[in-house]
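ok trying again, last paste got cut off:
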Amino acid sequence: MLALSGGGLATPEGAALIVFLGVIPTALAYVLFARGLKRLSAAETATLTLAEPLTAALLGVIVLSERMSAPAALGGALILGGLVVLAAPDVRRRPATVPA
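nice, full thing came through this time. structure:
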């Protein structure tokens, strides 16, 4: 494991790690994300963008065993509630038709 002081990053292995992290998980993810956004409507893109930080927080809790504070959990619940509302079918009231 590389040292956090930065000394390990000056080695060839550290440089390879920097290049790998910059190209594969970062650049490739953004290229795929942008390519996927081209196929979505503006509403779908906004919904997906709202879900991204919630997904990252949940992955941090599940995969990395991070702790989520109460305000963060409340914010996540609000985002999730908003996504549920956005995903619900549109059930607007139609004006009553008057028989002629």
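cool. The first helix runs from residue 12 to 37. The chain has a mean pLDDT of 83.
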